[in-house]
Amino acid sequence: MKTPEAEKLFLENVSGLLNEGIQNLDRSIQQRLEHARIEALKSDAQKRAGFFIPLRWTMVGGFATIIAVAAGLFFWLPTSPVVFPAKHIEDLEIITSAEHIDFYQNLDFYLWLATKEDSLKKGKTS
């Protein structure tokens, strides 16, 4: 990267060359360039003044107010307490399983059926 001194020297050289070029121009061209420069500076000043339009600041203020209210409500309002529905740890398996509740309502029947099938299999193999 260029050092600040080298950059400053470069800008001075460029400025000097441009100033020499202006001095070699006709008086009418110099006046037109000066007029164009003044107009450019005026339009730039008008564009900068547009930033301070009250409507723009009203919009920014309104947006900031909405954000502040939303953040305030988010942190101020209490959240609903989490109530764990299972009173016993055995119920946790029922709640988290992918089986239908009908399976658990008829669980006694399925257990009885499994024991009968086991006893039948044992009876056939022996």
| Chain oligomer state | single chain
Q: Indicate the proportion of strand residues.
A: under 5%
Alpha-beta content class = mainly alpha
Unreliable spans: none
Overall 3D geometry?
elongated
| Rg, Å, rounded | 42 Å
Number of alpha- plus pi-helical segments: 6
Average pLDDT across residues? 78
Cα end-to-end separation = 92 Å
Integer count of domains:
2
Count every beta strand, where a strand is a DSSP E run of 2 or more residues. Answer: 0
The description of the largest β-sheet is: none
Please render the helix and strand layout as text:
Blueprint: H1 4-23, H2 27-49, H3 54-76, H4 89-96, H5 101-105, H6 107-125
Written account of the structure:
The protein has helices at residues 4-23, 27-49, 54-76, 89-96, 101-105, 107-125. It is mainly α and 126 residues long. The chain has 2 domains: 4-76, no CATH class; 89-125, no CATH class. 0% of the residues are buried.
Quick structural overview:
Helix content is 78%, strand content 0%.
Q: Keywords, please?
A:
single chain, 126 residues, mainly alpha, 6 helices, 0% strand
